[in-house]
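Example 3.2
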Amino acid sequence: KTQRLADILVAAPIILVAVIAHYNVPRYYFELEDRSISKFSKCILYSLVICCSLYLSIAVCGYLVFGKDVNSDVLENLNPNSLRAVVARISMVFVVLFSYPLAFNPMRGSIEALLLLDTTWYDPTRFTHNFSLTLILVAFTVLPGAFLEDIGIVLDYKGALLGGWIAYGFPALIFLSLRRRAYSFVHSEDTHESSEPQGNHMTLDGFEYYKKSSFLILAYFFIFWALIVGILETTVTTLNVLNH
């Protein structure tokens, strides 16, 4: 039972990585035509169903073919001289080419917003500055992939350290921050008259959303869950790497 629990904790980070797309949600929401929360929720639901169905079918097929000997990179189990293996590797190249920008652009935008935009020496509108930052970040992300032989280690630590926080912890912290701002806004409205009634009306309508105690409880639960999961998965992943 202990070994089964350890195996689940080792697999959990990869599962978290597989369904994480939170950093792209704001951009996708604002790009949605005739956007609304309900419409966007349906888009997320359909996307998760499609992705999880594909993940599950590929995982089951990989296990049925190779059993317990399946590698973290299933392509390593294929005969390198097989035509199907060559086609699979070429297909994976296109997967990386088209999925890498989806994760890279939010990372570059976040670094610019958090670290560089307030400085006097960085100008995102200048090509040389933008290109230099892009080149540094590409090198930072590509070099580990060029030297590490087991992609499973990268995915395990990525899921263990960030998976729980990106999926549960950070959204909950964002909710708590917005909740505090909503309460501060309502308190200021009680003592001062507003000069922008339309914008304030929209904010006050949204305040009812933040007042729900069930959401507050869920937020604290998700933060606690992210902390516990991160500690457990990082510990188990490290022990698993050391044992191998």
